[in-house]
């Protein structure tokens, strides 16, 4: 049986951590990233001794730097876990507590590189590495919580009046990464308890 390798960016906490746990429970080899290696190591130890912790942050100097760094990340995961990632979960994200009009240029740049540019290059590098190493096509699925809206006001507007657990999102992500979801592509699936109908 071919090894199933998942790379979870932002895997040291929140939804990313729950996704890493869920995939590991389902037999995946998992690599998680955090900007802080200590946090990644702590999270990996909480899941299992065989989860690979990595420090990773999308560089903000240029698109080329971001692309090269993402390629290095995917290559490192492939080398250390013995197979290319067949699932890439972009759970890393950030927000700034400010109106868009009041954001400083540096803050806007950090938001864009963390929440958009990094995941795009990670996805691209994963596909390129997969084609170079195995010649097989794998679908890459991403979750990026940071692009889905303002968390602070969400609870008061929520129809069921409660916020559910990160593991409920992780279960959907694990399903989408499975063979059972092979025919599902290009979809944005809301897990919002009826917030948007």
From TrEMBL:
<dbReference type="Pfam" id="PF13561">
    <property type="entry name" value="adh_short_C2"/>
</dbReference>
<comment type="similarity">
    <text>Belongs to the short-chain dehydrogenases/reductases (SDR) family.</text>
</comment>
<dbReference type="InterPro" id="IPR036291">
    <property type="entry name" value="NAD(P)-bd_dom_sf"/>
</dbReference>
<dbReference type="Pfam" id="PF00106">
    <property type="entry name" value="adh_short"/>
</dbReference>
<dbReference type="InterPro" id="IPR050259">
    <property type="entry name" value="SDR"/>
</dbReference>
<dbReference type="InterPro" id="IPR002347">
    <property type="entry name" value="SDR_fam"/>
</dbReference>
<dbReference type="GO" id="GO:0004316">
    <property type="term" value="F:3-oxoacyl-[acyl-carrier-protein] reductase (NADPH) activity"/>
</dbReference>
<protein>
    <recommendedName>
        <fullName>3-oxoacyl-[acyl-carrier-protein] reductase</fullName>
        <ecNumber>1.1.1.100</ecNumber>
    </recommendedName>
</protein>
């Amino acid at each position: 049986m071919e090894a199933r390798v998942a790379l979870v960016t932002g895997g040291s906490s929140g939804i990313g951590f729950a996704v890493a746990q869920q995939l590991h429970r389902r037999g995946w080899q998992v690599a998680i990233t955090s900007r802080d290696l200590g946090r990644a190591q702590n999270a990996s130890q909480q899941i299992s001794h065989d989860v690979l912790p990595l420090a990773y942050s999308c560089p903000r100097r240029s698109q080329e730097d971001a692309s090269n760094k993402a390629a290095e990340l995917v290559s490192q995961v492939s080398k250390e876990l013995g197979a290319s990632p067949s699932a890439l979960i972009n759970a890393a994200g950030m927000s700034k507590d400010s109106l868009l009009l009041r954001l400083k240029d540096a803050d806007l740049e950090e938001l864009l590189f963390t929440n958009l540019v990094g995941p795009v290059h990670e996805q691209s590098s994963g596909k390129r590495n997969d084609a170079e190493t195995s010649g097989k096509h794998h679908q890459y699925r991403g979750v990026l919580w940071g692009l889905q809206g303002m968390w602070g006001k969400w609870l008061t507007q929520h129809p069921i009046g409660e916020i559910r657990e990160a593991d409920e999102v992780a279960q959907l992500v694990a399903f989408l990464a499975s063979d059972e979801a092979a025919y599902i592509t290009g979809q944005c699936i809301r897990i919002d308890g009826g917030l948007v109908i």
